[in-house]
Design a protein that fits this description.
single chain, about 30% helix, five-stranded antiparallel beta sheet, 5 strands, alpha+beta, about 150 residues
Length: about 150
């Protein structure tokens, strides 16, 4: 029996030489700055597809793309947007900085072609148990399971 990721790769063929996949050191640095590990399926997706994959109804945010299109920039933009609109979002945001010890919040990981944004709800703290939250025009919907 094939995994969901193997099934995805059979439908959305990965490029032969994906760019922007990140080295182990880059992943470790990113996770250290975020204060949390990221889901294994996200790392596997980035390793297989890298940046610039556009044949899907969504665009996964690549951690190692140039700003403002990388994961850390997207997190900062999300945080700033909700602070500006609401002063306080419905969900607690990801860490404000390295000195924060609050691991809960949302991490944006994809943009849909319909204008929606997919986030991980980092509660509980185990990245392999994070659920997906989609926001479309300020409507929030939760989906059990991970990104694939």
């Amino acid at each position: 029996m094939r995994s969901s990721f193997e099934e995805l790769k059979a439908i959305l063929i990965p490029p032969d030489d994906p760019g922007g996949t990140g080295s182990p050191e880059q992943w470790a640095g990113l996770e250290d700055r975020l204060g949390t590990p990221l889901p294994a399926e996200y790392k596997a997706f980035i390793a297989a597809y890298g940046q610039g994959f556009t044949d899907a109804p969504f665009n996964v945010i690549v951690p190692f793309a140039s700003p403002p299109y990388n994961l850390e920039s997207e997190i900062a933009q999300f945080r700033d947007s909700y602070r500006e609109i609401y002063g306080q979002p419905d969900y607690q945001l990801v860490r404000e900085g390295l000195d924060s010890d609050v691991p809960e919040g949302l991490i944006p990981w994809a943009h849909g072609n319909d204008g929606g944004i997919a986030y991980w709800d980092t509660r509980p703290g185990d990245p392999e148990r994070w659920t997906v939250i989609e926001e479309l025009e300020f409507y929030w919907q939760e989906f059990p399971g991970g990104m694939i």
